[in-house]
UniProtKB/TrEMBL annotation:
NCBIfam families, A to Z: PRK05740.1-1 (NF004371), secE_bact (TIGR00964)
Subunit structure: Component of the Sec protein translocase complex. Heterotrimer consisting of SecY, SecE and SecG subunits. The heterotrimers can form oligomers, although 1 heterotrimer is thought to be able to translocate proteins. Interacts with the ribosome. Interacts with SecDF, and other proteins may be involved. Interacts with SecA.
Transmembrane segments: 18-35, 41-68, 89-109
This protein's UniProt keywords: Cell membrane, Membrane, Protein transport, Translocation, Transmembrane, Transmembrane helix, Transport
InterPro entries named in the record: SecE_bac, SecE_sf, Translocase_SecE/Sec61-g
Organism: Undibacterium aquatile
Protein name, UniProt field: Protein translocase subunit SecE
Similarity annotation: Belongs to the SecE/SEC61-gamma family.
Role of this protein: Essential subunit of the Sec protein translocation channel SecYEG. Clamps together the 2 halves of SecY. May contact the channel plug during translocation.
Localization annotation: Membrane
Pfam families: SecE (PF00584)
């Protein structure tokens, strides 16, 4: 017996819901710019209305439900992370800055050595 999960193909209704959600976002943005002569509140309400309609359409589609489930799971996983203390973060930052400084000096030295080797030794172009 196989343990492979079966992935269902979304119906055409879900595709239409996603397309309509995109159209709602575009309509909200278009309304925001078309109503340029109106009050700022009217423009913002028109924009938010388009976004709310889009979120509503996505929420009832399979793609949207999967996205919202993924977002909830991501938040749950973020709560499990053990964040470093302020002291640990400072120490890690100091190590990174120290490494960058050492690498900068190393690359500068390598550049100067290759410059000396190429211009002075090989080509004989003295400065």
């Amino acid at each position: 017996m196989s343990n492979h999960s079966v992935q269902t193909v979304s119906t055409s209704n879900d595709k239409y819901k996603v397309i309509l959600a995109g159209a709602a976002v575009v309509s909200g943005i278009a309304a925001f710019y078309i109503l340029a002569g109106q009050s700022t509140w009217v423009r913002v309400v028109a924009l938010l209305a388009g976004l709310v309609v889009a979120v509503g359409l996505l929420a009832i589609s399979e793609v949207g439900r999967n996205f919202f489930d993924f977002a909830k799971e991501s938040v749950r996983e973020t709560k499990k992370v053990v964040w470093p203390t302020r002291k640990e973060a400072g120490q890690i930052t100091a190590v990174v800055f120290g490494f960058v400084l050492v690498m900068a000096i190393f690359l500068w030295g390598t550049d100067k050595f290759l410059e000396f080797l190429l211009y002075d030794v090989i080509l004989g172009w003295k400065k």
